[in-house]
Amino acid sequence: MSGSTTNKGYPYPLLTDFADVQDAYRLASAIDADLLADQNPFRAFEGRPSFVVRQTSNGSGFLSGTDLMNFSAVDWDNTGGAKVGANSFIQPNSQPPSWWMFGATVLTVPISGTPVVGDLVEGRIQVITTDQVSNLSTTKYSVQRNDESNTSGEWLNVFTMAAIYRGHIAAQLVLNGSTQKAISAGSTFWGFYLGPVT
Amino acid sequence: MAFLRRTPYEKLRYPWASDVVSVPDVQSMANDIDQAIVTTQKFSSDFSKFGSVVAKRNAAQSLTKATLTTISFDSITLNNGSDSPLANGNWWAAGSPTRLTAPVACVVLVSAFGGVNLGSALGTAGCVEVAVGLNGSTAWQQGNKHSPISTVTGQVWTSAVSLWPLNAGDFLELKMFWTGTPAGPFNTDTVVPPQLSLSMVALKSVS
Predict the structure, then answer these.
(1) A21·B109 Cβ contact <8 A
(2) pLDDT tens-digit map of B66-114
(3) CA-angle at B157, arms to B156 and B160, nearest 5°
(4) Distance in angstroms (rounded) separating the CA atoms of residues A189 and A103
(5) CA-based nearest residue to A91, from A164, A42, A160
(6) Can you tell me whether residue B37 is helix, strand or coil?
(7) Residues of A with CB below 8 A from B140's CB?
(8) Which pTM value belongs to this model?
(9) E-state strands within chain A
């Protein structure tokens, strides 16, 4: 088989070639692989990587400091980076630098004492990413602050976009107060791939 | 006709081994290539046409104090599910005015927004909340809640962004909540009314 089509390079026999039934196989295989390659970007777009995880039981109470949301349930994940029991989404190492959107609803629950109106309550998304050249890690935060209202727990909706490479992304609760609170069951963390960073 | 095998991906039939290529063999192969190219063309035509919807509550809806209230939509400014080859069905129907129902298994990005018209100030321990819930349950909701300044009256809004994995038939609803010193009830804001909007961002399964 010594000929090939002009644009796609599909192989075919010339008149001077010995007729071989496997010419049909080679032609079919070339077309098959080419069409699959043409379809793959569309499949990737329609099935873009995303995850949604939840904490399903209340966390431990604390007065001041930071706690991480626990991934007790993975409601959806086709990234491979959201694992049950983890505290952060881990971007697969095979993925090149890419744009993602992350969000969370961090719920709080009073653990002890009557919550004091005005005590600091923040929901936070922590983004740790690695520089592809220097291999140095950097950490950045996006924050929503809804201070204590003493109305049976706070709801903090926080979201961000980030360029990440070998990223570790976590949802956090930050407190500074005088009564114990915790991350509540039902808190949700999510993310989805927006595209490559070129 | 020769014994035919198929290629691994597009399942194109081709003759194999010591067979002599016959006219029907070539016809089979050509028909399979034709079908595979049609599939590819459909991918290229449809891939970005995700369904989306915007639902609003223009008329005032009463919100009872300390009660999570499901918003009933009376204005659908976008409902393009039936125009989307990836959804192939509407998200909203008049028979279920609170619900945005997924026509197919998908992942959706959701924007929720709601305002309360405070007839009197909430006082020190008060809040306004907007939530999105799945399938009528309160077990799983995403939203935002904040405490307005204790003396504020009039319009107060809050909003939230969330991502949901949905199966076909799952529905999302917009809910609002307020509490504070006054007995209420208060109405939803009619100047900038409550709104739930979403867009599919992915299919759960791509063939």
Answers:
(1) no
(2) 999 999 999 999 998 888 899 889 999 999 999 999 999 999 999 999 9
(3) 160
(4) 6
(5) A164
(6) helix
(7) 54, 186, 188
(8) 0.92
(9) 3-4, 11-12, 50-54, 62-68, 73-77, 89-90, 98-112, 120-130, 137-145, 155-164, 168-183, 188-196
Distances (CA, A) of B194 to A75, B46, B74, B153, B157: 28, 31, 11, 18, 9
**Cβ pair B202:A192 closer than 8 A:** yes
Cα separation of A183 and A71, whole Å?
Answer: 12
Instruction: Please state the length of chain B.
Output: 207
- Reading the block at residue A12, the tokens are 């075919």
Q: Which pLDDT score, from 0 to 100, does residue A17 have?
A: 76
Q: Which residue has the tokens 């038939």?
A: B169
Q: Is the dihedral of CA B145, B147, B148, B151 positive or negative?
A: positive
Q: Which of B89, B134, B109 is nearest to B199 (CA)?
A: B109
CA distance B55 to B92: 8
pLDDT tens digits along A145-186: 999 999 999 999 999 999 999 999 999 999 999 999 999 999
Q: How near does any CA of chain A get to the CA of B160, in Å? A: 6
CA distance A135 to chain B (A): 31
Rounded distance between C-alpha atoms, residue B181 and residue B65, angstroms: 9
Distance CA A94, CA B38 (A): 32
- Residue B44: both structure tokens together: 């290229």
| B169: three-class secondary structure by DSSP | coil
Report pLDDT digits (tens) over A106-145.
Answer: 999 999 999 999 999 999 999 999 999 999 999 999 999 9
For residue A187, which of A171, A168, A166 has the smallest C-alpha distance?
A171
Q: What does DSSP assign to residue A47?
A: T
Tell me if A159 and B161 make a contact (CB, 8 A cut-off). yes
CA distance between the termini of chain B = 31
Burial class from Cβ neighbours inside 10 Å (0-12, 13-18, 19+) for residue A139 reads: exposed
| Distance from the A186 Cα atom to the nearest Cα atom in chain B, whole angstroms | 6
